[in-house]
Amino acid sequence: MALGPALLSMASAAQVRSGSPGNVVISSANGLRACQRAMEVLRQGGDTLDAVIAGVNINEEDPEDNSVGYGGLPNEDGVVELDASVMHGPTRRAGSVAALRNIKYPSRVARLVMERSDHIMLVGEGALRFAKAHGFQEENLLTDKSRIAWLVWKANLRDSEGHSNWSDGLDAPVSKPSAQLRQMFPEVDESLLAWAVEVATRPPTGTITCLALNAKGEMSGVTTTSGLAWKIPGRVGDSPIIGAGLYVDQEVGAAGSTGRGEENIRTVGAHTIVENMRHGMPPKEACLDVLKRISRNYDQDLTRLARFDIVFYALRKDGAYASASLWSGRRQREAVSTRKFAVNDGGESRLEDCAFLYERK
Ligand code: ASP
Question: What distance in angstroms lies between residue 175's CA and the mean position of ligand 1's atoms?
Fold first, then answer.
């Protein structure tokens, strides 16, 4: 005899309950505080989506996180454009926004798209109007720090003669580009200028993805970002693409991503990871499989692959979790720093090492 839908859903809820290990939150490495806050919400019995959004709001409002929300590095016009997506496991719903300007909390707007519209994704002007209709205030998201980095990037765009429209004119006294920068920004201290040169010449990746499981076996996720620095206005990365930057199926698990979104969109990484777990792969192998697909898109050409990195995060419904990156770490000047991700399973948040496909020498 076939089970009716009500019995089936009771059966699957019981399976989820019996397999649940308690509350677990994971995120990208910039999410130690986000995981902590999300765990506090879960401990108080809060919803998993409330938890992860409360967590990433910390990064969205932090001017020192230059990859998310307020203070994010801008597009090539000097305008901060934000992407975000949310998925709520219990109701199987999703929402997202892309190329949203002037609103500090794109994750909250993505949630409103999910809850207060009959759509899943809003972009650009339409997303902004929707946010304002729901009471969000417009504000300038470009901090002085990010503005200086953008100006340094502009000054570094030179023709084959070494000329830049955005630095000293041809008639200026001859000086080295580094001295020109010093003259252009006399009020900026050395360390800020050095950082601006670093991000202008080697645009960093960032983003925060945060995934949560509660003791009832419910799961949700969020990914929020200012996207790639210096992007073409209107460029949309993987973060707001349901299935690429985020995917949740609470009968299986959740996955998210940070890093070069273009590679993730081509492999629909988060959905592929969840499907891999559905078919029995542990979280680490599920992430590594997608990284191998990305590598295959470049015929395993390590020289071209070395130009970017991408990191996946996976949390299974039984609380098993992992993160894996294409490269073992990031080169920062001489040293390679190991890639990490953040975890909170009830105590203090901690960083754990990511697995990786290739070792950065
Ligand atoms: N994944 C983001 C994007 O491609 C960027 C990042 O993680 O830094 O927009």
Answer: 36
Atom number, ligand 1, closest to the C-alpha of residue 207: 7
Kindly give the number of the ligand 1 atom that is closest to the alpha carbon of 205: 8
Count of alpha carbons within 13 angstroms of residue 336, beta-carbon side: 9
Walk along the chain (361 residues) and give the pLDDT tens digit of each residue: 344 444 434 433 433 444 557 999 999 999 999 999 999 999 999 999 999 999 999 999 999 998 999 999 999 999 999 999 999 999 999 999 999 999 999 999 999 999 999 999 999 999 999 999 999 999 999 999 999 999 989 888 877 777 777 776 666 666 666 677 777 788 888 889 888 888 888 887 779 999 999 999 999 999 999 999 999 999 999 999 999 999 999 999 999 999 999 999 999 999 999 999 999 999 999 999 999 999 999 999 999 999 999 999 999 999 999 999 999 987 766 677 889 999 999 999 999 999 999 998 8
CATH number at residue 279: 3.60.20.30
Same domain, 164 and 88: no
Burial (CB count within 10 angstroms: exposed 0-12, middle 13-18, buried 19+), residue 274: buried
Residue 67 in contact with ligand 1 by CB distance below 6 A? yes
Neighbours of 91 (CB within 10 A): 14
Specify the residue for token string 């949630």: 111
| 283 CB near ligand 1 (under 6 Å) | no
207 is catalytic: yes
Please tell me whether residues 192 and 250 are part of one structural domain. no
